[in-house]
Amino acid sequence: MPDSSGPHPTPPAPAAKKPLTIVMGCDTFAPDVNGAARFAERLAAGLVERGHDVHIVAPAASRKHGTWTEEHEGQKMTVHRLRSWRWYPHDWLRFALPWTSKANARRILDEVKPDVVHFQSHIVVGRGLAFEAQKRGIRIIATNHVMPENIMEFTVIPKFLQKVLIAVEWRDARRSFDRAEAVTTPTRRAADFLEKATGLRGVHAISCGIDAGNYTPDFSPRSGNRILFVGRVTGEKHIDVLLNAVKLLPADLDARLQIVGGGDQLKNLQAMAETLGIADRVEFLGYVSDEELRQAYTRATVFAMPSIAELQSIATMEAMASGLPVVAANAMALPHLVHDGENGHLFRPGDAQDLADKLESVLSLPQDELDVLKRASLRIVAAHDIQSTISTFESLYRGEPVADPETEAASRVASPE
């Protein structure tokens, strides 16, 4: 029987968790424009907004190097810019010198004394931080955004040697990942790929996440058929397949393609559009501001992603948050976002005719049926909220158990009522 003899003291509120000091190691970071850089920038800004002290370690974007405060996504953070060199086979990539990675890591870790190190790449910066953090007993979290298969495209290594070197790269990656308390990658399919390539087990699938509120869906009747691609203009994106597909579309659709992004294949693809006779229907916008990018998403009718090497594809999630149907290659992690017949279609990788057929099927839809696909994109991408991603990483940083969101979803589907 409860005691009612007098007032009961109010139980104390749970103690607030103290903010963390976090060192985040990145081989690519803003102003670089790619999925890994964008994820690190958004995660860091979200952590700062929650009161954590975040230090970014990344190659300098120019010859100027040192430590200073930078603002990203509206949040100020400390950035340690390492002396870097330009990799000229690539259109913008700069890298920190590998033989200085441990010395840089020692200096920064001894100065900052972080609670946790989170490296976003094992290649240079992450390798040094992992080695030195382990020696100091600092908790390490690792995230993989890298496929050595993609890196080889920007080397001058002969093709016959690349397969051997890819295997060597994955073994090297394993050495850095083995130092981490937890390893993550953006999707379950990417996690399975990483486990197979390295022999790791227990890789977490944690979405890069986006803030869907930053994007504006438009359900007003469309004034034209606009196809949009956003991403690096490089070989692994297979934009040539998209150009060939546009060539195959019926003329009466009056479909126009916008390509947002820069890269080493830009001039080649511009020449290809001329050769195909579709230059008047293809617009290469290059790099654009965040606001211009959001407007491009809002104006488009359908988003096309022909890439075969996406570990998640932030651009595809941004398109979905803008209410766009998606036609994507049935490869790597894209089927995780594009549910065939629900919010768009998957096509056979490299098959321009199949891509054209799937684009035509979307562009030919009456407005009410198109809106069904648009709403499905909004519903599917809602599971990839950036705040959930930040909370999951906070738990990993503190050593708390986390449930893999992808596994939870699969369990709900598989379990009987």
UniProtKB/TrEMBL annotation:
Record-annotated Glycosyltransferase subfamily 4-like N-terminal domain positions: 33-212
Pfam family, one: Glyco_transf_4
Keyword Nucleotide-binding (UniProt): no
GO molecular function annotations of the record: glycosyltransferase activity
Ranges where the Glycosyl transferase family domain occurs: 224-369
SUPFAM superfamilies listed in its UniProt record: UDP-Glycosyltransferase/glycogen phosphorylase
Keywords: Glycosyltransferase, Transferase
PANTHER family in the cross-refs: SULFOQUINOVOSYL TRANSFERASE SQD2
Protein name per its UniProtKB record: D-inositol 3-phosphate glycosyltransferase
